[in-house]
Write a structure and sequence with these properties.
This protein is α/β, with parallel strands linked by helices. It has a five-stranded parallel β-sheet with strand order 2-1-3-4-5, sandwiched between helices. The longest helix is centred in the C-terminal third of the chain and has 28 residues. It starts with 15 loop residues before the first strand and ends with a helix.
Length: 240
């Protein structure tokens, strides 16, 4: 039996997951890890794309980042639950992915229709247990190679650094235009992804940017961006 569902999945069938995240590097990392655990994973880079895919295919569960432009994870789960109620279809388990998973956020997620919250940076043991509780295991564990997250991460570092450098450039431009909402959004993304890729210092700077942007503090944003530029250069050299 699947959480929230009264239909029976054939023994041996592979759980189908829909992963929604606007950050390509985090999405690729999760796809590799989830696939290595035996799940079939479909990607969506936005809430709108996720809704389209849900209309086309029946998934066993959905995992979505909370902080996305236009259709956030909060809006997405509300739309999914409303559609299920209107069409009287089965309830699809939905797990939130958040870099700001405070107790208040967790409670709000459960209140509006999520079935669990997965924190960033990822604790892979916790993530695996949450998925097992939500949809069961993937393919026969005996047929799966042991997960070496460190090797998965190393293979993705070039694209991760490229994405963070691009975000850095966008934040520098946003600061010139005093667009603090954009710095807040990209700082939050950095906070969630840095530790997952083995660079907790990037997560710390992401949180600094988030706090400074929400306060409209241009000086602190500039200071944090200076630290980010230097830290990115050091991280690239360290990973080489």
């Amino acid at each position: 039996m699947r959480a929230g569902d009264d239909t029976y999945r054939m023994p041996g069938s592979v759980p189908q997951l829909l992963l929604v995240d606007d950050d390509a590097s985090s999405r690729v990392l999760l796809v590799q890890v989830l696939s290595s655990w035996g799940y079939d994973v479909t990607e969506a880079s936005s809430g709108a794309e996720a809704l389209r895919r849900l209309r086309e295919h029946d998934f066993d569960a959905l995992l979505t980042d909370l902080e996305m432009p236009v259709i956030t994870g909060f809006v997405l789960v509300r739309q999914i639950r409303a559609r299920e109620e209107t069409l009287r279809t089965r309830r699809t388990p939905v797990m939130a992915i958040s870099g700001h998973a405070t107790l208040a956020v967790r409670r709000e997620c459960l209140r509006i229709g999520f079935d669990g919250v997965l924190s960033k940076p990822f604790d892979w043991d916790v993530a695996r247990e949450l998925l097992r509780d939500l949809v069961g295991t993937g393919r026969d564990p005996g047929s799966q190679r042991p997960l070496d997250v460190s090797s998965e991460v190393r293979s993705l570092l070039p694209s991760f650094f490229a994405a963070r450098q691009d975000d850095y450039s966008k934040m520098v431009f946003a600061l010139r235009k005093q667009e603090f909402d954009e710095i807040d959004r990209l700082g939050h993304r950095l906070k969630g992804s840095g530790g997952s890729f083995g660079f907790p210092e990037l997560s710390t700077i992401g949180e600094m940017l988030e706090v400074a942007a929400r306060a409209g503090d241009a000086g602190s944003c500039a200071e944090a961006l200076g630290a980010l530029g230097a830290t990115l250069r050091e991280a690239v050299l360290r990973a080489a």
